[in-house]
Write a structure and sequence with these properties.
The protein is an alpha/beta fold. The chain folds into two domains: 106 residues, no CATH class; 185 residues, Rossmann fold. The protein has eleven helices and seven strands. It has a seven-stranded mixed beta sheet. Helix 1 packs across helix 4 and helix 3 packs antiparallel against helix 6. The longest helix has 27 residues. The protein starts with 5 loop residues before the first helix and ends with a strand. It binds S-adenosylmethionine. S-adenosylmethionine binds next to loops.
Length: 300
């Protein structure tokens, strides 16, 4: 059996049939880029989880998309994100493997199946990874499934990546994929709250920082930019992304405008050098337009 990204698409036809045509068309329109993600992912996932990896991933993706659609409907009516207490979120989402593992599959697949996220992947590969200094030390905050860090190591044989995430089951997934990737000497994943890093002795320690789809999970995302600013080397580069007007069970900070995270970054002493922001597909006029925004940041 040829183990490559097409196995995810095949599994979608079985386990996420209604969503499969849109996923396939995003994949086909961006085949080289999506394969850059899905081909190594297929090898690592198959090595770590066996044949069931593909159908599990497709099922996780379907479950996640249904949850997102439901949350967005409730949000449209209510006018704001549902309020969730952080301790509840930690015990019911981040610490719960039965929720987190399917969610992590979906969090990976949206980069290849959602048009708005494909643009993040392009920015990440072509501009962020390309801009890292030789031998860069990279920190990935909220590494989740670990795929962004692992792809960084796959693309750049000269860099080191340290990933941290608050969720034990997510870190377990990342470590299983890492064990299959051949990058164990240069990549590590640990359980840690991203906001608890620094302000110890790490000032300026990282040439690259990844903080993808984390800010909307925090009560005070401004603190994240302070952590990033503290840890970033003078010539370092940051890949930051977040969700805007996108309700989800674990989204607790509601951004309504691109200028909000941008301003937070600037107030922490960072400069935005690139920004992409794309809306999801919406068939009719809505009060809230879900978008995904990604930025490259440098020190001012
Ligand atoms: C949507 S996933 C993003 C995963 C990955 N960065 C990506 O782009 O697909 C959100 C991740 O944030 C993690 N997370 C939430 N709050 C966190 C915190 N305070 N510190 C570290 N990780 C956190 C969750 O456990 C989850 O893995």
């Amino acid at each position: 059996m040829m183990v490559d990204g097409h196995l995810f698409l095949k599994a979608m036809e079985k386990k996420a049939r209604l969503l499969a045509p849109a996923a396939r068309s995003t994949f086909q329109a961006n085949e080289a880029l999506c394969s850059w993600l899905l081909n190594p992912l297929a090898r690592w996932a198959h090595g770590a989880y066996g044949d069931r990896a593909f159908e599990d991933a497709a099922r996780g993706y379907a479950q996640y998309c249904m949850g997102v659609a439901r949350s967005q409907q409730v949000y449209e009516k209510a006018g704001s994100y549902a309020s969730v207490e952080l301790p509840e979120l930690i015990s019911e989402v981040y610490e719960d493997a039965s929720y987190m593992v399917p969610y992590m599959w979906a969090a990976i697949l949206i980069y290849a199946f959602w048009p708005s996220m494909v643009n993040h992947l392009a920015l990440y590969r072509d501009e962020f990874l390309g801009a890292l200094n030789p031998g860069a030390n990279v920190l990935e905050l909220a590494s989740g499934h670990g795929i962004l860090g692992l792809l960084a190591a796959e693309e750049r044989a000269d860099i080191k990546v340290e990933g941290v995430d608050i969720s034990p089951p997510a870190v377990a997934v990342a470590n299983r994929l890492l064990a299959m990737s051949g990058h164990e000497g240069r990549v590590s994943f640990a359980i840690k709250d991203a906001l608890e890093i620094g302000p110890g002795d790490c000032r300026g320690r990282y040439n690259g920082i990844i903080a993808a789809m984390l800010a909307e999970h925090l009560q005070e995302p401004a603190l994240l930019f302070q952590v990033i600013s503290h840890l970033l080397a003078d010539d370092g580069v940051v890949f930051f992304s977040t969700a805007i007007e996108s309700a989800q069970r674990d989204h607790i900070y509601e951004f309504n405008e691109e200028s909000e995270p941008l301003r937070m970054a600037e107030e922490a002493g960072l400069r935005v050098t690139r920004l992409v922001s794309d809306a999801g597909l919406t068939a009719h006029a809505v009060r809230f337009l879900p978008r995904a925004t990604a930025m490259l940041l440098r020190r001012r």
